[in-house]
Design a protein that fits this description.
Strand content: under 5%
Radius of gyration: 21 Å
Mean pLDDT: 85
Low-confidence stretches: none
Shape: elongated
Number of helices: 3
Largest sheet: none
Helix content: over 70%
Length: 80
Protein backbone atom coordinates (compact mmCIF):
# COMPACT_ATOMS: atom_id res chain seq x y z
CA UNK A 1 0.00 0.00 0.00
CA UNK A 2 1.43 3.36 -0.99
CA UNK A 3 1.71 6.12 1.55
CA UNK A 4 0.61 9.65 0.82
CA UNK A 5 2.91 12.67 0.69
CA UNK A 6 1.83 13.88 4.16
CA UNK A 7 2.75 10.63 5.89
CA UNK A 8 6.12 10.53 4.13
CA UNK A 9 6.99 14.01 5.33
CA UNK A 10 5.96 13.07 8.87
CA UNK A 11 8.33 10.11 8.79
CA UNK A 12 11.16 12.29 7.47
CA UNK A 13 10.57 14.91 10.18
CA UNK A 14 10.56 12.22 12.88
CA UNK A 15 13.84 10.81 11.60
CA UNK A 16 15.45 14.26 11.51
CA UNK A 17 14.28 15.03 15.05
CA UNK A 18 16.17 12.09 16.54
CA UNK A 19 19.23 13.05 18.56
CA UNK A 20 22.33 11.54 17.07
CA UNK A 21 25.49 10.93 19.08
CA UNK A 22 27.90 13.82 18.69
CA UNK A 23 25.17 16.20 17.60
CA UNK A 24 25.15 19.83 18.75
CA UNK A 25 23.88 19.22 22.27
CA UNK A 26 24.59 22.05 24.73
CA UNK A 27 26.37 21.24 27.96
CA UNK A 28 24.33 21.02 31.21
CA UNK A 29 25.40 24.49 32.38
CA UNK A 30 24.13 26.06 29.15
CA UNK A 31 20.87 24.14 29.40
CA UNK A 32 20.41 25.36 32.98
CA UNK A 33 21.01 28.95 31.87
CA UNK A 34 18.47 28.57 29.06
CA UNK A 35 15.88 27.13 31.47
CA UNK A 36 16.39 29.97 33.95
CA UNK A 37 16.11 32.59 31.21
CA UNK A 38 12.93 31.03 29.81
CA UNK A 39 11.41 30.82 33.27
CA UNK A 40 12.11 34.52 33.89
CA UNK A 41 10.70 35.45 30.49
CA UNK A 42 7.55 33.44 31.17
CA UNK A 43 7.08 35.12 34.55
CA UNK A 44 7.70 38.50 32.95
CA UNK A 45 5.04 37.83 30.31
CA UNK A 46 2.53 36.87 33.00
CA UNK A 47 3.23 40.03 35.00
CA UNK A 48 2.94 42.28 31.94
CA UNK A 49 -0.40 40.66 31.14
CA UNK A 50 -1.62 41.19 34.69
CA UNK A 51 -0.45 44.82 34.60
CA UNK A 52 -2.69 45.48 31.61
CA UNK A 53 -5.79 44.49 33.57
CA UNK A 54 -4.83 45.56 37.11
CA UNK A 55 -7.23 48.01 38.76
CA UNK A 56 -5.88 48.31 42.29
CA UNK A 57 -3.08 50.91 42.52
CA UNK A 58 -1.27 48.92 45.22
CA UNK A 59 -1.31 45.83 43.05
CA UNK A 60 0.05 47.86 40.12
CA UNK A 61 2.94 49.03 42.33
CA UNK A 62 3.60 45.44 43.39
CA UNK A 63 3.56 44.22 39.78
CA UNK A 64 5.90 47.01 38.69
CA UNK A 65 8.36 46.05 41.44
CA UNK A 66 8.17 42.41 40.41
CA UNK A 67 8.72 43.40 36.79
CA UNK A 68 11.78 45.47 37.72
CA UNK A 69 13.15 42.53 39.73
CA UNK A 70 12.67 40.14 36.82
CA UNK A 71 14.31 42.59 34.44
CA UNK A 72 17.30 42.84 36.79
CA UNK A 73 17.57 39.05 36.97
CA UNK A 74 17.31 38.78 33.22
CA UNK A 75 20.02 41.34 32.61
CA UNK A 76 22.25 39.58 35.16
CA UNK A 77 21.81 36.29 33.29
CA UNK A 78 22.50 37.80 29.89
CA UNK A 79 25.40 39.88 31.13
CA UNK A 80 23.95 43.26 30.14
Amino acid sequence: MARGWASKSAVVRAEQAEVRPGANVPDPATLDLIRKKESILLSRTRIVTELKSAQNPRYVILLNRALADLDAKLSALTGN
